[in-house]
Design goal:
alpha/beta, six-stranded parallel beta sheet, two-stranded antiparallel sheet, globular
């Protein structure tokens, strides 16, 4: 899954779609000007994917509310998870956020929300997580997370719970450094994993990996690159059958001592299905080459590739194949009435 540089479908991204058939595209503020422009971009991306491969793309965005919200006014503005958790009626606020966000995302052609954050807050959070967590109570996080997941997915938007197995105790920003979560295994099992178990019961479409080291689980590799955490724990022990999606592989926590391509390979070997490269498409292309060569030389089992493709195609058939085409008239009408 790759980003693109501008608010239109550029030639490089169309070539990438044509030649490599990525699972999807992730959009950021640099790609969004207003609802009509965004709907046009999503339409053009899907037209290209269907033209070349007969299957639409995941088009994802981080729309958590609060500080992390790529969709600005006239889209509905929500205050974020911490505000939901502190509300007098948090269940209703969580449901309202999920329903409205799904309605507006679907209208403009988005189909995957990289939310909700299910990290359990512990004391004062690291700055990049400020306002993004529901609560310090793991049961509250689990309940509110499940409500958001259900509201999004019942209204046609895939939810992606993050950051597995929990970043609430991070003391560094993984955009720049590798956090080390020094929690005992028992605490992780009881507190951090509880909201993700709830998300799995709610049939969450995807779970995003954490760029942090958990010595009590795997003393050598961060979760994104750890088969112990992604395959043994999340897949086998917790029984998750949906999509495992990496956080951005360009982050400093991962690329401090390896290339984006090597990170993509290591994450795929660990059990990830979708490898997220948000900005520089060359890193994604290098990763494709490296993984393809490993498959051709039989260093990667084709069975693993087939399993990831099967999970991707299952999600596409369930959520986006045959969905209603984007209507610019409906977009214009909705946001005109809203304003």
């Amino acid at each position: 899954m790759t980003g693109l540089p501008c608010p239109i479908l550029d030639k490089d991204t169309e070539t990438l779609i044509r030649n490599f058939n990525p699972a999807g595209i992730i959009l950021f503020s640099r790609n969004i000007e207003d609802p009509l422009q965004l709907a046009t971009l999503c339409r053009d991306l899907q037209d290209a994917a269907v033209k070349y491969h007969g299957m639409p793309l995941f088009i994802s965005i981080d729309q958590e509310g609060g500080r992390v919200a790529r969709l600005k006014a006239p889209f509905t503005i929500f205050p974020g998870n911490e505000a939901i958790g502190k509300d007098e009626n948090p269940l209703e606020r969580a449901k309202e956020f999920g329903y409205t966000t799904a309605t507006e995302m679907k209208l403009v052609g988005l189909n995957m929300n990289l939310a909700p954050v299910l990290d359990v807050r512990k004391g004062e959070t690291e700055r990049h997580l400020t306002g993004r967590t529901f609560s310090e109570n793991h049961k509250t996080v689990a309940v509110l997370g499940a409500v958001v997941i259900k509201a999004l997915q019942d209204n046609g938007i895939m939810a992606v719970a993050k950051h597995f197995p929990g970043l609430g105790r991070a003391d560094m920003d993984p955009h720049y450094h590798l956090p080390v979560i020094k929690s005992e295994k028992e605490d992780i099992e009881k507190l951090n994993l509880h909201p993700f178990r709830s998300a799995i019961r709610a049939r969450v479409a995807g779970i995003m990996t954490s760029h942090a080291l958990y010595p009590s689980l795997d003393p050598e590799k961060p979760a994104t690159l750890s088969s112990i955490i992604l395959s043994d724990l999340l897949r086998d022990r917790m029984g998750f059958k949906g999509l495992i999606i990496t956080d951005d592989l360009e982050m400093g926590a991962i690329t401090g001592n390896r290339s984006v391509a090597q990170a993509a390979l290591n994450s795929f070997l660990a059990g990830a299905d979708i490898l997220l490269v948000c900005k520089e498409q060359q890193g994604l292309l290098d990763g494709i080459d490296l993984i393809r060569n490993k498959i051709l030389s039989r260093e990667i089992r084709e069975e693993q590739l087939d399993q990831s493709i099967s999970r991707i195609m299952t999600a596409k058939r369930k959520y986006i194949e045959g969905i209603e085409k984007i209507s610019l008239k409906k977009v214009e009408k909705y946001f005109a009435l809203k304003s």
